[in-house]
Structure formats: structure tokens, C-alpha cells
Design goal:
mainly alpha, 62% helix, elongated
């Protein structure tokens, strides 16, 4: 699902159609995946400037 959305550039509706699941399910699963990734990466914010 992440590959279809991020790398494939498909919208939530397009991913939902390809997987035959509701668009809301796509949105919630992608949101959960983003949260897990943030946790795994230590909540790194690429927009924050860090200068040592």
C-alpha cells in the first residue's frame, strides 16, 4: 500500500480501487504506517535545522 501511494504516486482512491478496499482504510493504514515510521526513526523532523 505504501509503495502504491508513495512510489507509485497513486491517490488514496486509486490505491483503494487497486486493492479493492475502502479509501478510508487506505488513509488509516497509511497514517498508522507514518506513525510507526516516525517512532522507528526517533521522530526526526527533516525540516528542523540542526547545527552542532
Amino acid at each position: 500500500m505504501v509503495l502504491l501511494s508513495v512510489l507509485g504516486g497513486l491517490s488514496h482512491a486509486e490505491v483503494a480501487a487497486a486493492l479493492n478496499i475502502p479509501a478510508g482504510t487506505v488513509a488509516s493504514r497509511l497514517n498508522r504506517a507514518r506513525k510507526q515510521l516516525r517512532k522507528a526513526l526517533g521522530d526526526v523532523n527533516p525540516l528542523e535545522e540542526t547545527h552542532g
